[in-house]
Structure to design on (213 residues):
């Protein structure tokens, strides 16, 4: 009689029937194809969130959670207020890493590379696709308002919500595209060790290898 199998940890067990190209060793030659399969369409209102890591003036990593606005080739786009700390860090050091995780699917993708500004058309489209709440936040969520007490902040938000039928795009609204030189897809398993497929830019193409999860 065989011993019972040790179950995978939470976030490491995929649902039954999920396609698992990394575990099965049948990933495409271009990471853009797998990224397109994992991310929702750019016009899908259910946007995934990611951890965006940048570097400050002293070379220390910084991180926060932002929405993934869309996909651009093997990379992603994201948008923020142009005077934010992350925007200042990207202006000084235009490199970043992004982690998107789906614990319910036992999936994760990590992108590392340089960051470029997107064009005004992309910024306008991304803002139009934001929920009304996030559109309002883009214009009012300042450090000055954050310093106020809760009652004041709720009162200000309620007033602006009532007075603004069509929230305008802030002048400082800024879009970025992460152009990766490395893309790593991770898949968990309940029957084997987790596994990663790592793509590294090689000239105009990509080289791929499987590494431990």
């Amino acid at each position: 009689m065989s011993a019972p199998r040790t179950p995978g940890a939470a976030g490491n067990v995929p649902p039954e029937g999920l396609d698992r190209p990394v575990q099965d060793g049948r990933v495409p030659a271009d990471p853009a194809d797998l990224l397109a399969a994992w991310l929702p369409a750019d016009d899908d209102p259910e946007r995934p969130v990611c951890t965006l890591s940048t570097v400050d003036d002293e070379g220390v990593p910084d991180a926060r959670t932002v929405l993934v606005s869309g996909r651009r080739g093997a990379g992603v786009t994201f948008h923020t207020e142009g005077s934010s700390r992350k925007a200042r860090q990207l202006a000084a050091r235009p490199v970043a890493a992004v982690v998107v995780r789906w614990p319910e699917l036992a999936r994760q993708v990590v992108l590392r590379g340089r960051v470029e500004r997107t064009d005004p058309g992309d910024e306008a489209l991304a803002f139009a696709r934001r929920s009304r709440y996030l559109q309002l936040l883009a214009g009012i969520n300042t450090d000055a308002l954050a310093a106020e007490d809760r009652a004041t902040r709720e009162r200000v938000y309620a007033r602006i919500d009532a007075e603004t039928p069509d929230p305008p795009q802030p002048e400082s609204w800024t879009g970025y595209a992460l152009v990766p030189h490395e893309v790593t897809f991770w898949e968990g398993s309940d029957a084997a060790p987790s596994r990663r497929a790592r793509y590294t830019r090689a000239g105009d193409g990509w080289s791929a290898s499987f590494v431990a999860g």
Notes: The CA atoms of residues 178 and 196 lie 20 Å apart. The longest strand covers residues 173-187.
